[in-house]
Amino acid sequence: MPIRFYNTLTNRLEDFNSVEPNVVRMYSCGPTVYDFAHIGNFRSFLFADLIRRFLEVQGYDVDHVMNITDVGHMTEDHLADGGGEDKMELAAQRLKEDKKSGKVPDGAIENPDDPYQVAQYFTDAFLGDARKLGLKIAFEYPEKIPHATNHIEDMQLMIAELLKNGHAYVGADQAVYYSVESFPNYGKLSGNSLDQLREGSGGRVEQKDQSNKKHPGDFLLWKPDQSHIMKWDSPWGTGYPGWHIECSVMAKKLLGRDVIDIHTGGEDLIFPHHECEIAQSCGTSGEESFARFWMHARFLLVEGEKMSKSKGNFFTVRDVLSGKVTGRDVHPAVLRYELLRSHYRSNMNFTEKGLRDSAGAVRKLTELNARLEEQTGGEAAQIDNSYPVVAEFLQALSDDLNISGALGCLFTWISQKPDNPHEALAALRIINKILDVAPMEHAQELADSEEASDAGGLDIKGLCQGIDAARANKDYAKADELRDQLQDAGYEVRNSPEGTVATKQLA
RNA sequence: GGUGCGGUGGCCAAGUGGCCUAAGGCGAUGGAUUGCAAAUCCAUUAUUCGCGGGUUCGAAUCCCGCUCGCACCUCCA
């Protein structure tokens, strides 16, 4: 069965074929590093991770690149594409406050007024979160995760080329703009036409801010601005690059092609960001397309509402993992599963209940894996992707990443009790290369690098033995008391013929 | 106003013309088990697919209208 993906460019499901056989070049719009990434960001990154892992299991060699946006930019880009406050400056203020209140550990950041330190601080935080959640690309930093600020020179080269071939001009304010009218396909990705965009902008974009541009839709490539914290010399004055140019440049440079296979991002990036990337990349390459497939993840809601800081439903990965939602620590595999389990093109509703459901599913998979490992001594049979449950799982994903269908096959199979544990283990391992929850590929090394202090001073084994002793003496009040202690500490307590066992709750 | 996506059980969600009196997960209920629980196992849990028309021998699945939700059109994954 062919792989089909929904292509935003054509608004259709299309058979997926890579430009070069067996190799997929994929670019994902990554985080801005002025703050901690939130779970909505990670849903989009995890969606890219799912594509990648799926294609890898299908036999593709996936070259994946994700950018770090660390150029400061401005908070209100509609003001002549660059008014308002500098985001790096805001981040510095926040960090200083957090440093004072002790939220930022000592030594984590020396000087919050240095934007490069701020960017690195949040980049490290992002990588830490991403690795915990099993984002494969996070283990390929910095090779596959470039910083925009390391590619300013190449951006300038592309801007110069756009000026040379007539796609860009210097406005009355000395800033360099891309001329959308020079690119006939502008609007194709988002389904907008220049006329509609002009109307849509009516009333919302002030006339005086537009007077420097030929068309209201023209967007910034280079802004001369001495006041910006991060600034670079250029033929058009000392200043900073426009937001969209970094992706065009880094995709081409790191993936080594003018036409890549897949480009991913959140749905909000369709317009203007990706529309502008296409205009820039095709404006320099002369190719018909920049990415053959544009794939976008829909936004995440929290308890049915859009996530926002003012509503108090704004969660970072570390918030969730440290129990801000559930009241107790959440295992990274649970959050990974939760963010992965719903189809990328529907709104996902992130809820506390959903998180607990996911914990149940992850536990089920984890225990199956443990059981099979034990039964087989870790010796898996030799099977390939045509093995029934694997084939069904992959077939579901082949249909535009139908993850629910895939999970449906998986759980149906689990409930049927495998008759050959060696084959079952092999099948589970293949499927887990994609899901990466039972167990997580890098869980052990990450756990080793962290202080394991989650027991909170409790002697888990001792308490379990205490329960067994009390039960043997029929002192049930004592046994219940000890069990309550363990449960309050977030442990699940089970009796078995071999004695009481306590395991940490997943969520 | 323009553009795009979607509305299936208590919740999440698959199914895109007959195998659907609708997969799977979670939950709930009853039973086995247990000192009691937990875990586990067994059983039950939508004659119905936002609403109204139409096409068809046959529709959750195709068409038309309506309605509700979401997103983008301004920085945002």
Describe the structure in your own words.
- This protein is α/β, with parallel strands linked by helices.
- It has three domains: 294 residues, 3-Layer(aba) Sandwich (Rossmann fold); 149 residues, Orthogonal Bundle (Isoleucyl-tRNA Synthetase, Domain 1), CATH 1.10.730; 45 residues, no CATH class.
- Helix 12 runs antiparallel to helix 13.
- It is globular and about 90 Å long.
- The structure holds one RNA strand of 77 nucleotides.
Q: What are its keywords?
A:
507 residues, alpha/beta, Rossmann fold, Isoleucyl-tRNA Synthetase, Domain 1, 3 domains, four-stranded parallel β-sheet, four-stranded antiparallel β-sheet, 17 helices, 17 strands, 14% strand, globular, RNA-binding
Tell me the strand percentage band: 5-15%
> What is the overall silhouette?
globular
Q: Provide the CATH superfamily of the largest domain.
A: HUPs
Q: What's the CATH class of the largest domain, please?
A: Alpha Beta
Poorly predicted segments: 77-82, 200-206
Summarize the structure.
By secondary structure, the protein is an alpha/beta fold. The protein contains 17 helices and 17 strands. Helix 12 runs antiparallel to helix 13 (403-415) and helix 12 packs parallel to helix 14 (421-435).
Set down the secondary structure blueprint.
Blueprint: E1 4-7, E2 12-15, E3 23-28, H1 39-57, E4 61-66, E5 74-76, E6 83-86, H2 87-100, H3 115-132, H4 152-164, E7 168-170, E8 176-178, H5 194-200, H6 207-210, E9 219-224, E10 239-241, H7 245-255, E11 260-266, H8 270-285, E12 291-297, E13 300-302, E14 305-306, H9 317-321, H10 332-340, E15 348-350, H11 352-376, H12 388-398, H13 403-415, H14 421-435, H15 443-448, H16 460-472, H17 476-488, E16 491-494, E17 501-504
Parallel strand pairs: 3-4, 3-11, 11-12, 13-15
Antiparallel strand pairs: 1-2, 5-6, 7-8, 8-9, 9-10, 13-14, 16-17
Helix pairs in contact: 1-14, 4-7, 7-8, 10-11, 11-14, 12-13, 12-14, 16-17
This protein binds one RNA strand of 77 nucleotides through helix 1, strand 5, helix 5, strand 11 and helix 8.
